[in-house]
Design brief:
Blueprint (H helix, E strand, L loop, with lengths): L4 E2 L3 E2 L5 E6 L2 E6 L4 H7 L6 E2 L6 E2 L12 E4 L2 E5 L10 E3 L1 E2 L10
Parallel strand pairs: 3-9, 5-10
Antiparallel strand pairs: 1-2, 3-4, 5-6, 7-8, 7-9
């Protein structure tokens, strides 16, 4: 579900529909929206699990100040999804604990 007419921001502007991959599944997103917005619109509530107690976390502040929305994005852990825009084909995974770096190594 997405807000179509916001009382302050006005009507949602049309944007190109793209696909991202979340935990191995294709998810619809729109260019310019944040990863967290696309995932919430797709019904995702859990973005990561805590290190100590394996507790689920999702959106909290939604302005990039906390770390509740961090996820592994294109192999990079701890990406704040509330302030990171989607890109077509982006691979996003639920983060477990502090995450694991899956980028290139030298």
């Amino acid at each position: 579900m997405r807000i179509k007419n916001h009382p302050i921001l006005g009507e949602r502007q049309e944007a190109k529909e793209i696909e991202i991959i979340f935990d191995g599944k294709k998810v619809k997103a729109f260019e310019g929206e944040m990863i967290a917005s696309a995932l919430v619109a797709a019904g995702v509530k859990t973005f990561r699990y805590t290190t100590r107690n394996n507790e689920p976390r999702g959106i909290f502040c939604a302005i990039g100040r906390c770390t509740d929305c961090v996820m592994e994005v294109d192999g990079v852990p701890n990406v704040r999804t509330c302030v990171t825009p989607v890109k077509s084909g982006m691979v996003i995974n639920t983060q477990k604990g502090i995450g694991q770096w899956k980028g290139k190594t030298s």
